[in-house]
Design brief:
Blueprint lengths: L2 H17 L17 H20 L17 H14 L9 E4 L2 E4 H23 L7 H14 L22 H8 L5
Helix pairs in contact: 1-3, 1-4, 2-3, 2-4, 4-5, 5-6
Amino acid sequence: MTPPEQLAQTTAMLNRLVDRIWFGQLDSPTPCGAYTVHDLIDRIIVLAAQATPLLCDEPLPAVTPPAVYGWVPAQEFIEATNSVVAATRLPGALERQVSTPMGPMRGDQLVQHIALVWAVHGWDLARGTGLPWKLDDALVTALGDFARVGMCESTRDGDTFAYPRPVAPDATAMDQLAAFVGRDV
């Protein structure tokens, strides 16, 4: 499965999840540090708004998440995440060297990293809302393989990625991935 396919599948599931979140759940805690459901939605919108120009070889815009007053910004979220998926189809996007906060990388590596982050944050949002989160096991395994190869000390910032946590040997592939990136399962 290619990085764009991984991102497309993860994005589709994430969009369905966010579209089902009720505004009363926005202040709910998540397993991602001190982030609430609202915080993670905002974080993903901002990440998407920054990733799209990177893949398009455009300057990074100043991005602020939408103001939320009693509603879930599902439409804004879906538009932002889908724009990243669309950017992966542009000529040269996957081969282009991009400068990221984690250092330089190829576009395909950035796309796979985003798929990993969104898979984990989808799990976080599902835990925070009680909604289901079920990615295909082959997708989760591919993202786990990517994480195990690419995860280094500097990547484990204690925020999105922390140190591995214990997990039962019979845990689902997604729970194993969540534990690998530092979530209590």
